[in-house]
Amino acid sequence: MQILGPQAAEKLEAIPLSDNTIQRRIVDMASDIEEQIVEGIKKSKFFAIQLDESTEVNNHAILICFVRYTEEENFREELLCCLELPGRTTSSEIFNALNEYFQVQGLDWGKCIGVCTDGAASRNGHQSGVVAKIKEVAHPEMLSTHCVIHRHHLVAKKLSPELNTVMNDVVKIINEIRSRALNSRLFTTLYESMDSQHQHLLLYTEVKWLSRGRVLSCLFELREEVKLFLRERNSALVEPLLDEEWMAKLAYMADIFSLFNELNISLQGACTNIFILRNKVDVLKNKLVLWDSRVQEENIAMFPHLQDFLSVADVNRKLIFNIISQHLKALVQNLNQYYPENEDPRKGNLWINNPFMEDVNSCALNLHEKQKLIELSSDVTLVSKHKMQSLSQFWVSLEKEYPSLSYRAIKLLILFSTTYLCEKSFSALLLIKTKQRNRMAVNAVLRLSETTLQPRLSSILEKKQQQISH
């Protein structure tokens, strides 16, 4: 450029790229990232995966698999593969697609120590599910986990008949306004004239975890605007909004599901472990027991919407409090059902979370390991290290000094507890592959969008010619 001068530079810049130049570069970088991930998995003693399957814009079934493995002195989480499933999405099809990828990449199933799924029958079937098929070829001590977030969603999903009726009415009211373009525009004009804090009602979507809490809170806070709008149109759907008992139930549901949303969000994220997530579930269970006792004392300070509404409404408080108490008790029972204590992986393994506080006799360790744990807990230099590092970093760093304890700790910590990364990737996939770009091959693009690794550009460039023929 400098030798030929600026005019020549302008002419060169005006030369258009070929139609697949950008695609080739994306594929090259994605391939390099994939090589790095496969190399890292092969170097790691063992790894864990999370699986989920969904359907994209072309109605193609997509299987996404994330992997967690040890790298240097920490864990790394990466997208392992994004596979299109031909035909049916049975357990056999899913396993065969994943197994073929493992064979092509030279990955050893024997190092797979854990699989996390959303609990669907095709994945978690005891005899013919994907997990059962993986257990036949994986590490003999492999553990399967049901996504903690998905279980939390199942707990909150069950409602008593009284509350379920309110939820059905809410959906009908919102659909009456949002599903019709004219009604939606007129309602927008109404709430703007009334200086409402919300811009519009939210549509309820069953598959979205946070949908219920946000929808209920939004409707409750816009109840006057909705009531006025339905009245002007002589809609029969205004009747529930005129019933103060119904409104009290709506206020409670808006409060309780907003609290569920807070927990749901805290369960999401990368680099989580079973100790952090199960502790949060235990906190919720204890709070529900506390709230139930407070409700029986007619103290509802933890439910601000309900408290404000009952301060001005004339309703049968005893009836409302009884419905709330029954619902809170049912939630505790559901939590015990979906998070049974006998299946809690923390049982006997609390020393992993805090090796300096745990009673050695209660640990699920052999004599030699207990002796080593006593030595570790007596080392004051490791106390500050434990506080400064993450749990995974701490135990990986002790691999040489305390190999048996480190092995047992890493084997449990490396497990995925949620399918959050898969769900997040499906959301990214919706943005990448749209109706206008429905023929796009998304594997490379999705890998680059989800990775934390950097492509080795110097290595990629060494393999390229300066000029290729077209």
Gyration radius, rounded = 27 Å
Mean pLDDT over the residues: 86
> How far apart are the first and last residues' alpha carbons, in Å?
23 Å
Largest sheet: 5 strands, mixed
Which geometry do the CA atoms define? globular
Annotation field: number of helices: 23
Strand order of the largest sheet: 3-2-1-4-5
**Helical content, roughly?**
55-70%
**Number of E-state strands:** 5
What percentage of amino acids are in beta strands?
A: 5-15%
Ranges with pLDDT <50 over ≥5 residues?
none
Structure classification: alpha/beta
Helix/strand order, N-terminal first = HHEEEHEHHEHHHHHHHHHHHHHHHHHH
Task: Walk me through the structure.
With 470 residues, the chain is an alpha/beta fold. The chain is 57% helix and 9% strand. The chain is built from 23 helices and 5 strands. Strand 2 and strand 3 form a beta hairpin. It is globular, with a radius of gyration of 27 Å.
